[in-house]
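Researcher: Next sequence.
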Amino acid sequence: MPPLAEYTDYLNRIWAQRRLTNGGPLAEELELELAAFVGNEAHVQLVANGTVALQLAIRALELTGEIITTPFSYVATTGSILWEKCTPVFVDIDESTFCLDAAKIEAAITPRTQAILATHVYGYPCDVVRIAEIAERHQLKVIYDGAHAFGTRVAGRSLLTYGDITACSFHATKLFHMAEGGALVTRELALAEKIGLLRTNGHHGDHYVMAGTNAKTSELNAALGLCLLPRVPGFIEHRAALYRLYREELAGLPLSYPLLTVDVDYNYAYFPVIFSTEMQLLTTKEQLAAAGVGTRRYFFPTLNALPYHTGAPCPVAEDISQRVLCLPFYQELTPSQVQLIAQLVRVSMPAEEAELALLCINE
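Model: Next structure:
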């Protein structure tokens, strides 16, 4: 949360202007600030939340057939495909990054395939270069679910600028947030203008162009975003320090982590750990909960096993989903709290594993 006095200054502007929504001045200001933050000639269209951002991305690209997607993401990724009456085709994930495995995409392409919708899981980037090559070769559109990706850069370029459209979530749990909110990022001006129409019921004033929906953000949400956006570099720096401390405190334990490549400037959005077995995950989660520490099985279960839509088996995603747990990771988390959580994790391990971990640290 930003300082209340700073947010109140924006509220005073809102009350003075008597403008609460419908593309108010604060929303327009935030879009410009976000475009500058993202860079690379990006166009940013704010919307009400990250789920409607995905839906609008599919609608803006006029997709009606099969969309190759990941089984390892939040349910909104698949839900948006189904909501737009398209067919999700699940492809397994890379065991190192947990993102869609680009090497397995082409085998899933059929004459009905129109697009690829991949998630930058935990802010770790998909193989954007290889996915772009595949999309160009097969004339497919590319949408990225960038709910976790704000602030991550690849080879000096914002991760949000890859693909045809990136859908962002600015939900309160995200690195940068507006309490509730989202955005679509594209480098194509005509596509950005189309998204702008779709989010405002398809019209400008008395000029009606297409069928749309109401996906606008309010001035109250935009004000919160304006307060927090300048703080994002500091947020990332703080989280990087917490990430390093977690890794130090958990050293030696039988845990693994997603792979971070050297060309990535990571945003440290989450701290996922992968246990050796699901039983060990459940034991640790239960003991942390008993100590008042909340964790999340994020993502569990895999989306190819949803009760209302099933897909082909994805053994890598299914295995990771059973063993991954996100530990507490947020702005107000202190180093001493990280040390306490790590100690609780260590104590939850079987005695022989904990002894081995302590031996590794002492050595």
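Model: Residues 357-363 have pLDDT under 50 and may be disordered. The chain has twelve helices and 16 strands.
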